[in-house]
Every structure is written in C-alpha cells, then in structure tokens.
Amino acid sequence: MSRLRAVVPALLGVTLGSTLLVSAADAQAPAPSGPAAASIAQARTAPMPPKSVWLAKVRKKLVGAKDYLDAHAKDAPHPALVLDIDNTSLQSHYGWPKPVKPTLRVAKRAVADGYTVFFVTGRTPAGARAAKPALTAAGYVYAGVYGRTKGAGLAISKQTNRELIVHRGYKIVMDIGNRKTDLSGKHVGHGIKLPSLDGRLS
C-alpha cells in the first residue's frame, strides 16, 4: 500500500515544511465505515472552530504539565522536554508565527526547572531550520531543532530524532505534540497530545 501524503501549505508566504508521511501503522489500519466514517467525514468538513476554542482545548490538555515537570526535574542529570512545532509551539494555522502561549508557558517552566528543550518536527531539515527564527522570536529557549529524516516515515523519523537526543546524554521526561506520531515509539517521556481538530491541524 502506498504511503499516504498530506502537504503542509505555505502560510503568509512562509513554507511550513513539505510532505508529511503517515506512519505504516496508520496506513495499514482499516478505514472506518458506516456511521463512524460519516461522523469523521462530517467533522473534517465542518468549519474550523475559533482560535479561542482551540486554545481553550490546548490549555485543558496542558493542565498539570508544569507540576509534572517540577516533580520530575531531578529524575536525571540532564532532563529534556521535546516539543512539536506546528500548532503545538507556534500557531501555524491561526496566527503564524505567534507562539501557542500555553505551550510556551510550559517550556519556560521547564527551562526554569533545569530542563533542556528540543523540537522534533515533521518538517524537512530545511523547513526545521527556517522555523528557528520564529521559535526564538516567540520566546522559546532551546538547544536543537530536528527535522524529518530523509526517506523515513513520520513516526520513524521522530523516533530516530528522539534517539539522537538521548544519545547526547539527555533523558526525555515529557513530549508534547498534536499527532500520535509525536508520542509513539521509543524514548517517549510523559506524553501530552494536544488537539489536532480531527486531523486538520498538522
């Protein structure tokens, strides 16, 4: 079965990366049918909710995140927080290149607690590098941005990049992203999945 592709569009003249690959597990999963399929199709064609509704959902998902970081800051000599970029750390859909403020607050608490912040993204390496100025301007303090591994599916790429972080001597304590691929595979810490609005936010 060929891999499914979803192209991330350019927003306000800024290219957000390139083709994202669905993981093999997702590609091989049976497609929903009957009422379930109709419900999913209806959700994906409905108008996007207002930004305020989306941010409220993000805040709800992140309740307790800072407390968790506080409690586990001494679990390893070099604790790390891993974040996705688009619609997790930066408002790629609703307000590029503004930060997703609830995520930014968690990232700032992590730094204050002694964590090192990394970004692991589905963007190409060039797209990942292009995001660095926006991340810095948004207020994030971080040690690295890892783009999609050439030729690898999205889930495998993100797992590979987490392994690179671990091999640098860090322990990943928490991962935050809005896709299952952000939280699947090896070296995932405490995972928090933010809303993807039925898959419409990359």
Please, could you describe this protein's structure?
With 202 residues, the protein is α/β, with parallel strands linked by helices. It has one domain (5-193): HAD superfamily/HAD-like (Rossmann fold). It is 38% helix and 15% strand. The chain has helices at 24-28, 34-45, 51-61, 65-72, 101-112, 125-138, 154-167; strands at residues 5-7, 19-21, 79-83, 116-120, 144-146, 171-177, 190-193. The strands form 2 sheets. Strands 5-4-3-6-7 form a 5-stranded parallel beta sheet, sandwiched between helices. Strands 1-2 form a two-stranded antiparallel sheet. Strand 4, helix 6 and strand 5 form a beta-alpha-beta unit.
Blueprint (SSEs and pairs):
Blueprint: E1 5-7, E2 19-21, H1 24-28, H2 34-45, H3 51-61, H4 65-72, E3 79-83, H5 101-112, E4 116-120, H6 125-138, E5 144-146, H7 154-167, E6 171-177, E7 190-193
Parallel strand pairs: 3-4, 3-6, 4-5, 6-7
Antiparallel strand pairs: 1-2
Helix pairs in contact: 4-5
Question: Which key terms come to mind for this protein?
Answer:
alpha/beta, Rossmann fold, 202 residues, 15% strand, 5-stranded parallel sheet, disordered N terminus
Strand residues, percent: 5-15%
Low-confidence stretches: 1-29
For the record, the CATH architecture stands as 3-Layer(aba) Sandwich
Class from helix and strand fractions: alpha/beta
Total number of helices: 7
- The CATH C-level name is Alpha Beta
Envelope shape: globular
Radius of gyration: 17 Å
Count the domains.
1
